[in-house]
């Protein structure tokens, strides 16, 4: 009886923990990244305000730092023609489908300026992650059709 009880307690702790795949992803994402390019699924010129913060042109070349042990980070917009500076955020990686490798990625700004303006998080798909590259996708609707924004990062 005692062994059965210990077995069920151990199983309940393991089921509540983060999966090994998500833990490994957090190890890989740790560190400094450069957002080198942003692409759209449709051809054309679009006025997109990413993360309710800045344009595509401002985000390209931005630097990002992820600290997975407390799920925080900072991104810096570096272009002088943009509202430059550091923006703090918290993030969460949740496993969706181990077959496709897609993860649900939630990013929420925590700077007072942006928090008071948006007070929201942004749900993205972490579609690719390696020791040197990372890709996020966000799908929104434009004129009733899906429109995908792809953000490509390189590890610094």
Automatic annotation (TrEMBL):
Protein's name according to its UniProt entry: Lipocalin family protein
């Amino acid at each position: 009886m005692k062994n059965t009880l210990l077995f069920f307690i151990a199983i309940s702790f393991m089921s509540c923990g983060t999966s090994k795949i998500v833990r490994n992803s957090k190890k890989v994402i740790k560190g400094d990244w450069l957002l080198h390019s942003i692409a759209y699924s449709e051809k054309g010129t679009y006025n997109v305000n990413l993360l309710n913060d800045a344009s595509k042109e401002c985000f390209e070349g931005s630097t990002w730092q992820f600290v997975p042990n407390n799920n925080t980070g900072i991104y810096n917009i570096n272009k002088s023609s943009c509202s430059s500076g550091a923006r703090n955020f918290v993030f969460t990686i949740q496993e969706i489908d181990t077959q496709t490798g897609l993860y649900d990625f939630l990013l929420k700004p925590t700077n007072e300026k942006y928090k008071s303006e948006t007070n929201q998080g942004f749900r993205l798909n972490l579609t690719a992650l390696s020791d040197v590259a990372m890709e996020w996708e966000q799908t929104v609707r434009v004129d009733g059709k899906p429109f995908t924004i792809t953000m490509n990062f390189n590890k610094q």
